[in-house]
Amino acid sequence: MKKVLEGSHAVSEAVRLARVQVMSAYPITPQTHIVEALSEYCSNGAMNARFLCVESEHSAMAAVIGAASGGVRTFTATSSQGLALMHELLHWASAARLPIVMAEVNRALAPGWNIWMDQTDSLAQRDTGWIQLYCEDGQEVFDTTLQAFRLAEKVSLPVMVVLDAFFLSHTFEPVDVPDQDIVDGFLPPFLPRFELNTDNPFAIGQMAAPTIYMEMRHSIQKAMERVPGELDQVEQEFAATFNRRYGPMEAIHCDDAEVIMVVTGTAASTCRKVISDLRAINEQVGMLKLRMFRPFPTDLIRQVLGSAHKIAVIDRNFSFGVSGIFAQEVRAALCNYKGHPSVFGYIAGLGGRDVTPETLEEIYWKTKSTDKPDAESIWIGLNPYSSFQSRSNS
Amino acid sequence: MERMKKQNGTEDIPLFISRSNITTEINKTGSWRFARPKYDEKTSPCSAACPAGEDIARIQMLANQESFKEAVHTILIENPFPAVCGRVCFHPCETACNRTGFDEPIAIRCLERFLGDFAIQESMKLPPEKLPENGKSVCIVGAGPAGLAAGYFLTRLGYSCHIFEASSEPGGILRWGIPEYRLPVKILAREIERIKDFGVKINCNVPMSQNFLKETKSRYDAFFIACGYSRSMQMNIPGDQAASDGLEFLRHMRREEITPLTGTAAVVGGGNTAVDIARSLVRLGLNPIIVYRRRKQDMPAFKHEVEMARKEGVKILELFAPIQIEKTGGACFLTLQQMKISGAETSGGRAVVVPDGRVTQLRRVDHVFTAIGAEPTEPWQFPPEQGPETLHLGHCTFAHRDRPLMFGGDLTNPIKSVTDAIASGKQAAMALDAFFKKGWDANADRLAPYRVGSGPALSMESYLKGEHTSRNRHIVSYEEINTDYFSTAARVLSASLAVDESVHSFLETEETYTFDQAVEETYRCFKCGICDSCNNCRIFCPEVAVVFKDSRRVIDLNYCKGCGICVVECPRNAMALEMEI
Amino acid sequence: MHEIRFHGRGGQGTVVASVILAKAFFSAGHYVQTFPVFGLERRGAPVEAYLRLDKKKILVRSNVYTPDHVVVQDIKLLDNLDVTQGLKLGGSILINSRDVPDNLDTFSGFQLHFVDAVKIASDNDLGTRTNPIVNTAMIGAFARVMDMPPMETIHTAILEEIPVKANNNFQAAQQAYEEVHTFGLVD
Q1: Domain harbouring A25, CATH code
Q2: Domains contained in chain A, number
Q3: Is the pLDDT at A262 greater than 90, yes or no?
């Protein structure tokens, strides 16, 4: 049934319907609404699950690692500083091959203290061995969360479902929330490939000597390589039940596009309108929405972007000393591709600054009118520092 | 609703993680071990310093747990006089206390007094453990602390004992030489009563003589001579007959047969007897002055007693020795020779003094008392210095003539204290028992395993149990205490009479600890070397290898990996780590 | 597409009002999107919420800059805030006010409406005299100004969002629907 649902609660509802057994989280804006609802479900009986209250995000991840090692379905959620604090244990989760699902609400890192939309927090965790899926709207958040459990459990890797702070987490919009039995049909109970068991105890996560460590890392990559295929399988099953699918990425009007805009998160939604408006005035523009960032869909990127003329990557994040992170990855994917297109890297909408249709149009026109990018990164809407000097930071 | 589990169809995806392929139940961390911890109770410095070898750390622990009866039993097995010693002992235990390195020593004597009084109040008997009667009987000469202790310990070892006492009541110096304000007669009587109840026979009003010993020789298998020093030494100066015998004065006091005295008095001497006389005189309304030929700090009297005497108004004149007394009318004129220091004694460092030329002082006093020492009354009471089959045991002299003849108490003790007298009785009992069981030659070595720490004190408890159960004799030092587990706390003071009140009566100047005070003070005790079940070893063990077996902690060597954390975290060095390879 | 901007203060239920209206419009057959602009999460701090309505799926996910309608829950906000900023010419503005607001020229070019939501809240026992809960009254008044959504959809949405005193809240909405004053286009 479709109902008007807050983005955060789209996550909570999916987690409830996924029959998660153990959850642990530490509250942080803008993730709080997700776990508040889940905590409520545990206390009012809507879920038959344990919600473990802990004193930090580090402990939250440790708790779900323990639970997942015991062979149960687990979930946690965090944001920004909380994710940063979890960092060490993100490695523990993936290298122990535990199918933990985490909702990560993209929020800026401090200082200055900023609770608003920014992707640097999740992208900074790109090397931790987690699958990362970025969502565009409330329905996709719900659907991706459900798919995440199925995918994680198939490949024995943890999945991060990423959603924009406020523009998604706090936005109410219609979301189709299916009944439990339909979800059950799509998502069977977790069948762990191993589980800690007191009847036959064994150890996990112990020392791995130089003679063996490299092979273990290789094994993670082998599992990562299986993700696109397994995600496709999951989406087929999902589409069969719900009649919706997203793919690791979505290309719109890319075949004949002069300029292809690469977007993620809610900016992809706004970009759809911009593309449509520009096409209406006969501009040769296309867009590529990236949903799956890890594993990075290099082959698909090459197929779609390889023969394009110009690529405009919009990054709501930044890797200091280099460029926007998506631009970096797109460039890396294309660099060995013969005659690859020019990649324009645009930095926009950091720390909650709005990415409006006008922002995206400006990027389009700028890209169209320039032959080659004049810098690795082009910062959009940047004001001179001097304009702030007599004003407060707010 | 039980849903069908469906296979993911992805079991071929590599899942090469760091995990054990076999059960961790066979992975016993004990196999990693190079060193092994063990519970190893050691000797506390207080116990080693106690002449009676009381297991003080354990007594403190038991009192701390409010197991007062068990605490009393633990004392009584080594010393039948806790109420007495809790009052008059000079507590070398406190001098040795490790707590001194931290803040102040534990008030061990005060706790012993509390437990002694508790035992009296509860009409507790002496612990009943006795070896079977062996048919041998021992004659004990003198019912002072040494004789009574010997009777008690010999009875425990299965001997039948007869004590013969010349005076009308048992107790010796405790009965006749210590004033009431330090040791009430009724307290002493209760502790002696307890010894009688244990089976020791005491015959009073039997004057001892060499003849008596000869006559009774055939009736006894051994003799223990502990008749003490009952004859005061004389000054041997002109007019010394004008001086009263200090010991005699104290005896009269104890009989409450004192004739009223007034005025000033000089007490000649520097020992406990001198101080006891002076403080008693204060209570009778006199102004006493102690005249001592050496310096104040050389006085053999217990420091605490000297300090109390000074507070009560006793004056001390040091470096003066009487050389003449002239009695004129009711007054005595005392000629005092000024003394000067000529050197120091090799042991103890007391000053050696000689007359300082012709410097003298004349003092007029109403009374003169002598307390310059005492000696045995008859020659046969002197222990043999040397000779065949003569053994000096520290607290006793063992002479094997046609019968074992043992000398003890003040006759042989280098330190003439009540607790040393008790130690002498215990040593005599154990030495005689060793002699009867193993013969003369084995005697000296036989007692070695029962020593407490490195000192001369012997443990009756381990003697009764057999040497295999004896405590590690290593004496725990302050450095071996994990002081992280202790916080400083002031010593609990027992209530005492104000000086202006105490000088008007023979009431005890110090009160016994209350229940709460006793327990509070035991919290300060480190319990050096003793396991007090603090559970640190178990709490800190990273392998949970400290387990309970028959309500005792034991180390599960299947899992103990020998990290030694338990030993380090033991606050009181009751554990040890030993190398296995 | 309609874009509506709500002005209120933290603690006045501004976001709840926008969610109730979103739910009501959704059940009346509209695509909806609403979200607050979070700043300082403090009682009394000025807050904004946006509501978009359309007949097709709403793609734009940025803030609302050129609203068709503005709702002002607290008239005192006018002192420090340009509530008409970006408001389309001919667009409507609904203000919680007992009388016609002063400085009418501020509203020049816009359709002005006002409603005494404080009195209506008081009439329906919502909140206290010093802190009246005016959000449901504003919803009712807005429904009259827009001539949508139907009051029964508002009723259902209130029941869902405000289970406490749901009837009083709906009564307030109903009363405001009746009592809203339309000043009309300000010259």
Answers
A1: 3.40.50.970
A2: 2
A3: yes
Does the beta carbon of A137 lie under 8 angstroms from any beta carbon of chain C?
A: yes
Name residues 18-57 of chain C within 8 A of A (Cβ). Answer: 18-19, 22-23, 26, 31-41
DSSP-based three-state secondary structure for C93: strand
The number of C-alpha atoms within 13 Å of B313 and in the hemisphere containing its C-beta is 17
CA B237/CA B322 separation, integer angstroms: 8
Contact present, B291 and B371 (Cβ < 8 Å) = no
Q: Per the CB < 8 Å rule, is B15 touching A194?
A: yes
pLDDT tens by residue, C123-144? 999 988 888 999 999 999 999 9
What are the chain C neighbours of A5 within 8 Å (beta carbons)?
none
How does DSSP assign B6-33, residue by residue? ---S-TTS----SB-SS-GGG--GGGG-
Q: Could you state, in order of their start, the residue ranges of all structural domains in chain C?
A: 2-185
What residues have CB less than 8 Å from C161, skipping those under 6 apart?
C16, C19, C20, C23
Instruction: Determine contact: A250 vs chain C, CB below 8 A.
Output: no
Identify the domain boundary among A218, A240, A262. Answer: A240
CB distance C35–A171 less than 8 Å?
yes
Per the structure, the complete domain to which residue A41 belongs is given by 2-240
- Residue A391 forms part of a structural domain: no
Q: Is A154 on the interface with B (CB under 8 A)?
A: yes
The residue in chain A having the minimum alpha-carbon distance to the alpha carbon of residue C31 is: A174
A356 contacts on C by Cβ (under 8 Å): 60, 62-63, 65
pLDDT in tens, A174-185: 999 999 999 999
pLDDT > 80? residue B4: no
Structure confidence at residue A393 (pLDDT): 53
Q: Enter the ipTM.
A: 0.91
| Residue showing tokens 């006969």 | A282
Residue A155 forms contact with B (CB below 8 Å): yes
Find the mean pLDDT for residues A315-324.
97
Stretch A290-294: mean pLDDT: 98
Residue with tokens 């040091």: B318
All structural domains of chain B = 25-41+531-579 (3.30.70.20), 45-126+474-524 (1.10.1060), 137-230+376-440 (3.50.50.60), 232-369 (3.50.50.60)
Interface touch A270/C32, C-beta < 8 Å? no
When scoring A172, A261, A266 by the number of chain C Cβ atoms within 10 A, the one with the most, hence best to mutate, is: A172
Statement: residue B469 has pLDDT above 70: no
Residue B35 β-bridge partners: B579
Indicate yes or no: pTM above 0.80.
Answer: no
Q: Are residues A291 and A164 in the same domain?
A: no
Say what the pLDDT of residue B467 is. 61
Instruction: Find the residue in A nearest to B13 (Cα).
Output: A223
What fold is seen in the domain C2-185? Pyruvate-ferredoxin Oxidoreductase; domain 3 (3.40.920)
